[in-house]
Design goal:
With 51 residues, this protein is mostly helical. The protein contains two helices and no strands. The protein has one domain. It has helices at 15-21, 38-50.
């Protein structure tokens, strides 16, 4: 079973990640929390700044 983002479900490893998510969409595992993608990490950081 391929690892997926806990928030949005995008693949973080495997065939779909290597060919679509990482190269075309620019999605990578988060630098702070490897269970979520970098896009969800950015959303999380933006919500924290609004409060």
């Amino acid at each position: 079973m391929a690892k997926k983002c806990k928030k949005c479900g995008v693949p973080l490893e495997g065939f779909l990640y290597n060919w679509i998510a990482s190269k075309i969409l620019g999605i990578k595992p988060s630098t702070q929390d490897t269970d979520i993608c970098n896009k969800c990490e950015d959303k999380k950081n933006m919500q924290g700044k609004r409060l």
